[in-house]
């Protein structure tokens, strides 16, 4: 069975072309590199409350039967585009999505060591990917033209997988083309600075599949296969009630904590998306972030990492952790019940939902991988995320609470609102 591929190529006709601003509500950033960051359920604009978050998961469970999601591959994003050289010749180049001149132009094979420091993993990735696609370029030009890549700035949103490149190990080396993205420039209304963003677009799937078939013949000579979107399906009934009835504990001070079921927390929480909290050292952190979630999950008292134990910031931090935890465990319940032609989804990074009745933009459900992803060596080298010891997070099946979870009851805090 052939899988229709979501993919494409960014063809730049000349350097310095100004790209029209993308309306803020239309911005969709996909996974890493030029493709950016794909939305989690809590990132969706309609998710304003905990109840809204639960509804997204419930709608997703119903959607799976009629609109099969795609398996999300755990690889290194290797988004590429076509670069027009000074002599008029064209070749493929990487685009990591920054405003660096080489990314804007496209990082060709000759430019790899100018763009990345010696020893950086993207040098080897770039050499293999660009060699494959440059070799295929003469036979895929017609397909590129039909897909519109000579008319507007497009990229292949593509994942590179070679053995244990990231967290999940795969038996075979392959390139997974997730979709075709158009590149835009976005001007900040506050600072006036310009950044680059991408948005997934529609394309002719038959033409793209024809292109991938041609590239595949060449990729095999390099020890790679090229895939498109791999569908996932349910193998058992999806039930969120058990997860919503598990308990989640929050430690306010070293002496006081509160424990409620996840469903109870969600019923009272608003989405703190975009809210900043001030840490004891004066630094800022997003209330809805991996950092805050890890702190609370590992039993660090809010009074020990939030400046002045500010009530509003504490409230936002609690709801941020609740949203993160719910996205993790509800997502894992969904993934546990799914499979695909390449194996059960529990062994993959997750799934990508493309159902406009739920969201106008694609979004990902990754379950426990939302914390496992910290292990990625590429994430560590390029994002340098703040991480904490993962005594609880290291167990991929962890769903209950650390020891302080049972400090509730008599020690329950009752004067805090807004959770």
Number of strands: 17
The count of domains is 2
Helix content: 25-40%
Head-to-tail CA distance between termini: 48 Å
Give the helix/strand class. Answer: alpha+beta
Account of the 3D structure:
- There is one protein chain.
- The protein has helices at 50-66, 101-105, 112-115, 121-147, 205-219, 241-244, 262-268, 290-297, 311-336, 369-372, 377-383, and strands at 10-11, 70-72, 76-77, 80-84, 90-94, 154-161, 174-187, 194-200, 225-227, 233-234, 247-253, 256-261, 276-278, 284-286, 338-339, 350-353, 363-365.
- A hairpin with a 6-residue loop joins β7 and β8 (194-200).
- α4 (121-147) crosses α5 (205-219).
- It contains eleven helices and 17 strands.
- The model is unreliable at 1-31 and 374-419 (pLDDT under 50).
- The strands form six sheets. Strands 3, 6, 7, 8 and 9 form a five-stranded mixed beta sheet that branches.
- It is 30% helix and 19% strand.
- It has 419 residues and is of the alpha+beta class.
- It is globular and about 70 Å long.
- The longest helix has 27 residues, at 121-147.
- The chain folds into two domains: 10-40 and 69-231, no CATH class; 241-411, no CATH class.
Comma- or semicolon-separated keywords:
alpha+beta, three-stranded mixed sheet, 30% helix, disordered C terminus, five-stranded mixed sheet, 419 residues
